[in-house]
UniProtKB/TrEMBL annotation, chain A:
Belongs to the adaptor complexes large subunit family. This is AP complex subunit beta. Keywords: Membrane, Protein transport, Transport. The keyword Transport applies. SUPFAM superfamilies: ARM repeat, Clathrin adaptor appendage domain, Subdomain of clathrin and coatomer appendage domain. It comes from Orchesella dallaii. Its main location: membrane. Residues 599-614 have a biased composition (Low complexity). It comes from the Eukaryota. It is found in: Endomembrane system. Residues 594-616 are annotated as: Disordered.
UniProtKB/TrEMBL annotation, chain B:
Its main location: membrane. Signal peptide: none annotated. InterPro entries: Adaptor_comp_med_subunit, AP2_Mu_C_sf, AP_mu_sigma_su, Clathrin_mu, Clathrin_mu_CS, Longin-like_dom_sf, MHD. It holds the Pfam family Clat_adaptor_s. Transmembrane segments: none annotated. It is found in: Endomembrane system. Belongs to the adaptor complexes medium subunit family. This is MHD domain-containing protein. It comes from Orchesella dallaii. Keywords: Membrane, Protein transport, Transport. Residues 167-420 form the MHD domain. It comes from the Eukaryota. CDD domains: AP-1_Mu1A_Cterm, AP1_Mu_N.
């Protein structure tokens, strides 16, 4: 006999009929009726009207019936809160039933009824159940505390349940310990302050490790997850926990394995014993590989996590390339993830195998997979230089297949290969051009156009090719339009003689016939650039491009570290921090623990960096994007020239054309020397006449020498940097009774080798009560001696009365040079190279700027913004500074949205400059 | 934290049964699951985890049913999937088969199980043998209400006390599956063995078992490095095995669950010749015909024999009029799989057989291009392990001191055995 019959009553007046059955005297009939009610509930019918009648059946000695009534209550209590109260008595009574199964059932169900009035009555029974003699009841009660906390956190804290829960961590029964840990972790996670309410200490950790060996597989996961939130106090503790956790890697349950991996990955950060780390690393590989034989969903989770692990510790799986080879019957989501990891693991040693696999994949039928495989070949070429040639050959083979989407994808990646290895593979351009007609996707078209524009001088019919695209200009995707505009301008600059008509055509299409503001603006920029100064246009448009980097899609290191702490969780699958998809949880962001040894060196900093993990500008994919568009996206230009007349295009170009022809046709040696790429603000400013004079921030003058000490001479002053020159601005006042004359100045050796570049010129005599302003140019070619503080300058001034000595502090920003803009890639690698202990963190409070004004303000003071990213609504600026003594300083500023507290991290090989840099930021941003 | 609620849906997305564990998500969100899944499938970027504004869906599919977990938090997703698979397993152990009908027939007990398996999203007892002691299909027939078995909360949560057998016996099956991936040129890309030791335990009381294998690490540590031994690359154990003990001295000691279970699995890479090697020559004459010449070679010892060998050779979906020629076994065309299946009941070691097939092809070519699925092989070789693993002893100690007999059986079979074709 099955339960299916309960679903079959479909008569009219069903509710009414059920009501009478529920109130029947016969037990059997009652039970049948409750089952019918539950059956109706299951298929989604609303049976809440029967609430009182069902609750009446609650008092029964039949366990099955009781469970069904409880189930009903959980479903409908919320909609009938007043009536739910009727059930309280029975709950309380059941919590004292001699049968532990019923006691547990009652306390479990009560916790699931999220009605405030019921919650009040829950406290007493819960208190008892937490101390119940039966572990089955205690383990259920432990979870119930978490339920109650979710409904009413205050109540849990007031009633002391947290302490009781903590006591359960020492329970003799491993299941109780496991559930108590789970409940505590959840409570800690949701604590409003973000700080854990119950701290773990070494003693509790020890108890957990003991329980770990005895509890169920799920309990093991709860314990491991909670261990991953614990920060061992020293390396020894971390090692000993690792040793006790490692056996879990041999558990059959994949989730136990991944949680153990999480703890190990986190604790490895603290451990400096390289031997120990390498043993652990070796032990991690086999279980990770075995995860790939589990169910496809688990494989997917494992692969997403492995993606993180190979970014963090590439060594672990470097010899395991083969296990990521795609099988024909893998689900598509597994295939795509495996491809990603194959690229990450690709190296010179295994590239041949990888390539032959990728080629195989590229001939499959699943379009998405094939595309990704083709892309992967391109990425291999960029990553493993030795293989580039083979990759290009493979791509050419694939282009020969003439499969449309393969060809398009191949062209997109070949564009990147050209960027990486300029002047190496251009011989294949003709093959590419053969496929021009088949390209229908914007990205492929744009890539092809880019290639034509970039190599216009080598493609005889480049003008014809580009012209053919121009015919349907209006119908093209904006990406293609922009690229076409740039390509034609490049072509024109390279072959001005016969392409003038073409460039005018495209400029007029872009500026007059298009309503896309980007396109129009870019059109105008080119137009004006070409008409005013074709030579400059050439420098700008055809500037040498920085190389693109090897790795793509790398996660930002801070994010990566955070995600490592979230291995096995959704965050690790999404590759996003939990705050990105979990609502309303403020919770602390997790970070890998800092190497304990490193902390002493940074202790001098006011607030030493809490996460010493290197924070780098990241994600080269955006970098590529930026660099690629660099030549076509110059900052907005304010050109005071008269508005261009729209009609007569020929005239417009006329003036500039001659000059351009001169440059192009004439002896190239006369062409202006290839200037550096116009990236620095100063240079751009020069070109466009943006900033006529550049004076950096000027600190107010301070009193350096009071008259009392100066025998009547009072000196106040400041230092400024103007047009790349440092000068000392002084006000000399004669407070003495006699005139002063014969002024001279001398500096002691100092940290930056500052010396006067000219003699001190003070109008002599300086009569009593007269004051004069003097500007003394300085340079930094003098002898160097480290001062304390670093920016201290000892000055001697001589006059007819005496030699006077005083000290002045030179604000560090005057040493910031105009060429302090670092290349992005160099910045990235420099940031990585500088050891973590050279990073110092400061807080800048009460700031009112947004990131744009910060960029602007700092730029005026030769602090150059290399990258700007938005992480979680928080702007991150990465800036570089070069000091006159060629010391580079890299900084990162975190600007919370609307917040006033910025965090400044300063990194430099010479960490001594950090306080000065911080002071400079303070001064500049507050000016 | 893991699941806020668990749903079982039919193939159209209709909820068959559900359980709300945390009450933090409106159960109505499940309506969005199917449309979202369809959309993702259409776009070709379907994953087992789907994110929406309200929650994350994590699902597995079993027999036309979707088992879906929803959560709003940063759940331990590995645990969620492990649990969903466990849920299916428990239901199968309860109802033989988990399908739409068995859910309707047993909804009362499924509710009870769901209540017991997961509490507030945290998995609890999931061992079906233990569950069956207090959650029974004939619950209402019991005069005395059941109590939670000791095992639910014990350190030994997988075995109840007081089990009795007249004849105490243990059966051990050592089953090795060979995974092989070879490319069209005959290069072996990957070859590994995934072994499993499955047990059927019919023992009284609380027996303490110790299993001895010719494990290389153990042999080397005990100075028997020269004996024939096997290097296991990764070993996974059932919950019952004391992992820390294994970590210390490689001893596999445990109190087994009652009845059938998988004690351990292991994995190792091999460099041995593929047991059954297939060479194929495929000649496609577009618009007219396609011809296959397939050679199967057994590359194991002559005294072993592979049974029930099936060689599955994919053919184009639009092929017609099949013709076969072979000296041994039987060949049949399975149009539903777009493949021919060459079956050889008994394939001794060191032999080589040949099969030819011929198909007609239509003169017009279809729009859809077809993939090139690999040739797959199924086989079973009894009394033989590729790795050479051996059970050296199984010690059984129970305080009543009975004698028990262990039986061991070895078998090698195909795992994921794929040979790509041109």
């Amino acid at each position: 006999m099955t339960d299916a019959k309960y679903f079959t009553t479909t008569k009219k007046g069903e509710i009414f009929e059920l009501k009478s059955e529920l109130n029947s005297d016969k037990k059997e009939k009652k039970r049948e009726a409750v089952k019918k009610v539950i059956a109706s509930m299951t298929v989604g019918k609303d049976v809440s009207a029967l609430f009182p009648d069902v609750v009446n059946c609650m008092q029964t000695d039949n366990l099955e019936l009781k469970k069904l009534v409880y189930l009903y209550l959980m479903n409908y209590a919320k909609s009938q809160p007043d009536m739910a109260i009727m059930a309280v008595n029975t709950f309380v009574k059941d919590c004292e039933d001699p049968n532990p199964l019923i006691r547990a059932l009652a306390v479990r169900t009560m916790g699931c009824i999220r009605v405030d009035k019921i919650t009040e009555y829950l406290c007493e029974p819960l208190r008892k159940c937490l101390k119940d003699e039966d572990p089955y009841v205690r383990k259920t009660a432990a979870v119930c505390v978490a339920k109650l906390y979710d409904i009413n956190a205050q109540l849990v804290e007031d009633q002391g349940f947290l302490d009781q829960l903590k006591d359960l961590l020492s329970d003799s029964n491993p299941m109780v310990v496991a559930n108590a840990v789970a409940a505590l972790s959840e409570i800690n996670d949701s604590s409003p302050s973000g700080a854990p309410l119950v701290e773990m200490n070494a003693a509790t950790i020890n108890k957990l490790l003991t329980a770990l060996n005895e509890c169920t597989e799920w309990g093991q996961i709860f314990i491991l997850d909670s261990l991953s939130n614990y920060n061992p106090k020293d390396e020894r503790e971390a090692q000993s926990i690792c040793e006790r956790i490692t056996p879990r890697l041999a558990h059959a349950n994949a989730a136990v394995v991944l949680s153990a991996v999480k703890v190990l990955m986190k604790y490895m950060e603290i451990i400096t014993d390289q031997e120990f780390v390498s043993v652990l690393t070796r032990k991690l590989a086999p279980p990770l590989v075995t995860l790939l034989s589990s169910e496809p969903e688990v494989q997917y989770v494992a692969l997403r996590n492995i993606n993180l692990i190979v970014q963090k510790r590439p060594d672990i799986l470097k010899h395991e390339m083969k296990v990521f080879f795609v099988k024909y019957n893998d689900p598509i989501y597994v295939k795509l993830e495996k491809l990603d990891i194959m690229i990450r693991l690709a190296s010179q040693a295994n590239i041949a195998q990888v390539l032959s696999e990728l080629k195989e994949y590229a001939t499959e039928v699943d379009v998405d997979f094939v595309r990704k495989a083709v892309r992967a070949i391109g990425r291999c070429a960029i990553k493993v230089e030795q293989s580039a040639e083979r990759c290009v050959a493979t791509l050419l083979d694939l282009i020969q297949t003439k499969v449309n989407y393969v060809v398009q994808e191949a062209i997109v990646v070949i564009k990147d290969i050209f960027r990486k290895y300029p002047n190496k593979y251009e011989s294949i351009i003709s093959t590419l051009c053969e496929n021009l007609d088949t390209l229908d996707e914007p990205e492929a078209r744009a890539s092809m156009i880019w290639i034509i524009g970039e190599y216009a001088e080598r493609i005889d019919n480049a003008d014809e090719l580009l012209e053919s695209f121009l015919e349907g200009f209006a119908d093209e995707n904006s990406q293609v339009q922009l690229q076409l505009l740039t390509a034609i301008v490049k072509l024109f600059l390279k072959r001005p003689a016969d392409t003038q008509e073409l460039v005018q055509q495209v400029l007029s299409l872009a500026t007059q016939d298009s309503d896309n503001p980007d396109l129009r603006d870019r059109g105008f920029i080119y137009w004006r650039l070409l008409s005013t100064d074709p030579a400059a246009a050439k420098e700008v448009v055809l500037a040498e491009k920085p190389l693109i980097s090897e790795e793509t899609d790398l996660l930002e290191p801070t994010l990566l570290d955070e995600l490592i702490c979230h291995i096995a969780s959704l965050a690790s699958v999404y590759h996003k921090p939990p705050s990105a998809f979990v609502e309303g949880r403020s919770g602390l962001r997790k970070a890998l623990p800092a190497k304990l040894a490193g902390e002493t060196t940074t202790s001098e900093a006011p607030s030493s960096s809490s996460s010493s993990a290197p924070q780098v500008i990241p994600s080269q994919d955006s970098l590529i994007g930026d660099l690629l568009s660099m030549d076509i996206n110059p900052p907005a230009v304010i050109q005071p020239a008269q508005p261009a007349p729209f009609g007569g295009g020929v005239d417009l170009l006329g003036g500039g054309l001659d000059a351009l022809l001169d440059v192009g046709v004439g002896n190239t040696a006369t062409a202006p020397p290839p200037a550096q790429a116009p990236m620095g603000g100063g240079l751009l400013g020069d070109i466009f006449g943006l900033a006529p004079s550049t004076t950096t921030y000027v600190a107010p003058k301070t009193l350096w020498l009071p008259a009392v000490k100066g025998k009547g001479l009072e000196i106040s002053g400041t230092f400024i940097r103007k047009n790349g020159q440092i000068s000392m601005e002084m006000t000399l006042t004669n407070r003495a009774m006699q005139a002063m004359s014969g002024f001279a100045i001398q500096f002691n050796k100092n940290s930056f080798g500052v010396i006067p570049a000219q003699p001190l010129q003070v109008p002599s005599p300086l009569t009593p009560n007269q004051s004069c302003d003097v500007s003394l140019l300085l340079n930094t070619s003098g002898p160097v001696q480290k001062m304390d503080p670093l920016n201290n300058l000892q000055v001697a001034i001589k006059n007819n009365i005496d030699v006077l000595y005083f000290a002045a502090l030179i604000p560090l920003h005057v040493y910031f040079t105009e060429d302090g803009q670092m290349d992005k890639r160099i910045f990235l690698s420099t940031w990585k190279e500088i050891p973590t202990q050279n990073e110092v963190q400061y807080n800048l409070s009460n700031m009112t700027h947004n990131s744009d004004t910060v960029v602007q303000k700092m730029q005026q003071n030769n602090v150059f913004t290399i990258a700007k990213r938005n992480v979680e609504g928080q702007d991150m600026l990465y800036q570089s500074i070069k000091l006159t003594n060629n010391v580079w300083v890299l900084t990162e500023i975190k600007i919370p949205p609307g917040g006033s507290l910025f965090t400044l991290s300063v990194k430099s090989v010479t960490v001594d400059v950090a306080p000065g840099v911080y002071q400079a930021y303070e001064n500049i941003l507050r000016s | 934290m893991s699941s806020s609620a668990v749903f079982i849906l039919d193939v159209k997305g209709k909820v068959l049964i559900s359980r709300n564990y945390r009450g933090d998500i409106d159960m109505g969100v499940i309506e969005k699951f199917m449309p979202l899944l369809m959309e993702k499938e259409e776009e070709g970027n379907v994953t087992p985890i789907l994110l929406t504004n309200e929650c994350t869906f994590a699902y597995i599919k079993h027999n036309n049913l979707y088992i879906v977990s929803i959560t709003r938090m940063n759940a331990n997703i590995a645990l969620v999937f492990a649990f969903l698979h466990k849920l299916v397993q428990v239901m199968i152990e309860y109802f033989k088969e988990l399908e739409e009908e068995s859910i309707r027939d047993n909804f009362v007990i499924i509710y009870e199980l769901m209540d017991e398996l997961l509490d507030f999203g945290y998995p609890q007892t999931t061992d079906s043998k233990i569950l069956q002691e207090y959650i029974t299909q004939e619950g209402h027939k019991l005069e005395v209400a059941p109590r939670p078995p000791m095992a639910v909360t014990n350190a030994v949560s997988w075995r109840s006390e007081g089990i009795k057998y007249r004849k105490n016996e243990v059966f051990l099956d050592v089953i090795e599956s060979v995974n092989l991936l070879a490319n069209a040129n005959g290069h072996i890309l990957r070859s590994e063995i995934v072994g499993a030791i499955k047990m059927r335990v019919y023992l009284s009381g609380m027996p303490e078992l110790r299993l001895g294998l010719n494990d290389k690490v153990l042999f080397e540590s005990t100075g028997r490095g020269k004996s024939k031994s096997v290097e296991l690359e990764d070993v996974k154990f059932h919950q019952c095995v004391r992992l820390s003990r294994f970590e210390v001295d490689r001893t596999i000691s445990f109190i087994p669950p009652d009845g059938e279970f998988e004690l351990m699995s292991y994995r190792l890479n091999t460099h041995v010749k593929p047991l059954i090697w297939i060479e194929s020559v495929i000649e496609r004459h577009a618009h007219s015909r396609v011809e296959y010449m397939v050679k199967a070679k057994s590359q194991f010892k002559r005294r072993s024999t592979a049974n029930n060998v099936e060689i599955i050779i994919p053919v184009p979906g639009d092929a017609d009029s099949p013709k076969f020629k072979t000296g041994i076994g039987s060949v049949k065309y399975a149009p539903e799989q777009s493949a021919i299946i060459w079956t050889i009941k008994s394939f001794p070691g060191g032999k080589e057989y040949l099969m030819r097939a011929h198909f007609g092809l239509p003169s017009v070519i279809g729009e859809d291009s077809e993939g090139r699925p690999p040739i797959q092989v199924r086989f079973e070789i009894p009394y033989f392990t590729t790795s050479g693993i051996q059970v050296r002893y199984l010690k059984i100690i129970e305080k009543s001191g009975y004698q028990a007999l262990p039986w061991v059986r070895y078998i090698t079979q195909n795992g994921d055995y794929q040979l790509r074709t041109n």
